[in-house]
C-alpha cells in the first residue's frame, strides 16, 4: 500500500499549523518512542500524553487537539472505549488506534468506535506518520492485513446474506464491566463516568442478568474473554 510522506496540502481539512496530537498509552517507554517518531515531523506536534483511556478524555477536554492516537489495551478505559467517548465529546476529532494486536476483532471494533486508522506498533516507525496525515484528510489508513480482513468479512456477510450481530452490551455497560473487573468500587466508577452510584449499581445488576452471571469474579472472567482487560 503506498503511503504519503508529504504534509497535508492546501484545500484539505487539516489545521493551518501543526497537527495537535493527544497520545495515549499506558507504557511510558512506548509513548516516548512514538513521540520521537511524531515530533521529528514539522507538521506533527504531540501536545498531551495520557497513561490510560480515562486520562485521555480528561486531556481532550483541557487541550485543543486535532488527532488522538490511542493504544487499544489500557487501564480504566480501553482505547476503544475512550474512542467512543471522544467521538461523542468532540465530533470533529480524528482518531487513530495504535496496537500490538493484529486482531480482526479489535480492528472491527476500532472502526465502529469511530477510529479512522489502525496502526500496528511493530511497524509504527514506518506507518504512523502517514496514518496521522491520512486521518487529517479524512482518509482511512489500514495496514495490509486489515484490508484482507475487511474484504473477507464483506464476502462472508454477503455470502450468508446477513449483517454482523450487534454487541450484547451497550457501550456504557461495557465501561462499567471493565471498571468492575479491575476492582473499582461503585463510588469510584460513578466518579470516573460522571454518573450516580445508584446508576452504577443498576448497570451492574443489568450486566449480571444480561450475561447470566452471578458475581464480580464471573464478570471479571467475562471481561478477560471479551478483551476488556488483560489476564
Written account of the structure:
By secondary structure, the protein is of the alpha/beta class. The chain has ten helices and six strands; from the N terminus they run βαβαβαβαβαβααααα. The protein has helices at 28-39, 53-62, 79-89, 104-112, 124-136, 144-160, 171-181, 186-193, 197-211, 216-225, and strands at residues 19-24, 44-50, 67-71, 94-99, 117-120, 141-142. The protein has a six-stranded parallel beta sheet with strand order 2-1-3-4-5-6, with helices on both faces. Strand 1, helix 1 and strand 2 form a beta-alpha-beta unit. Residues 1-14 have low confidence and may be disordered.
Along the chain, the helix and strand elements come as EHEHEHEHEHEHHHHH
Helix content: 40-55%
Mean pLDDT: 82
Structural class: alpha/beta
Strand content: 5-15%
- How far from one another are the termini? 35 Å
Described by the principal axes of the CA atoms, the overall outline is globular
Number of contiguous helices: 10
- Unreliable segments of 5+ consecutive residues: 1-14
Order of strands, main sheet, comes to: 2-1-3-4-5-6
**Rounded Rg:** 18 Å
State the total count of DSSP E strands: 6
- Sheet with most strands: 6 strands, parallel
Amino acid at each position: 500500500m503506498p503511503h504519503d510522506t508529504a504534509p497535508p496540502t492546501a484545500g484539505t481539512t487539516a489545521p493551518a499549523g501543526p497537527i495537535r496530537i493527544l497520545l495515549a498509552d499506558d507504557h511510558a517507554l512506548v509513548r516516548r518512542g512514538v513521540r520521537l517518531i511524531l515530533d521529528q515531523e514539522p507538521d506533527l506536534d504531540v501536545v498531551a500524553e495520557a497513561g490510560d483511556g480515562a486520562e485521555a478524555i480528561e486531556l481532550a477536554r483541557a487541550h485543543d487537539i486535532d488527532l488522538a492516537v490511542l493504544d487499544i489495551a489500557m487501564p480504566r478505559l480501553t482505547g476503544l472505549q475512550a474512542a467512543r467517548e471522544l467521538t461523542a465529546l468532540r465530533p470533529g476529532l480524528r482518531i487513530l488506534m495504535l496496537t500490538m494486536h493484529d486482531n480482526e476483532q479489535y480492528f472491527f471494533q476500532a472502526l465502529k468506535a469511530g477510529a479512522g486508522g489502525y496502526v500496528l506498533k511493530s511497524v509504527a516507525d514506518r506507518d504512523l506518520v502517514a496514518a496521522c496525515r491520512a486521518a487529517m484528510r479524512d482518509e482511512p489508513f489500514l495496514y495490509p492485513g486489515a484490508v484482507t480482513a475487511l474484504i473477507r468479512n464483506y464476502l462472508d456477510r454477503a455470502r450468508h446474506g446477513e449483517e454482523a450481530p450487534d454487541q450484547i452490551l451497550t457501550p456504557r455497560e461495557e465501561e462499567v464491566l471493565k471498571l468492575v473487573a479491575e476492582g473499582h468500587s461503585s463510588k469510584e466508577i460513578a466518579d470516573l463516568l460522571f454518573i450516580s452510584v445508584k446508576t452504577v449499581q443498576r448497570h451492574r445488576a443489568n450486566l449480571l442478568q444480561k450475561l447470566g452471571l452471578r458475581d464480580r469474579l464471573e464478570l471479571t472472567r467475562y471481561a478477560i474473554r471479551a478483551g476488556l482487560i488483560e489476564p
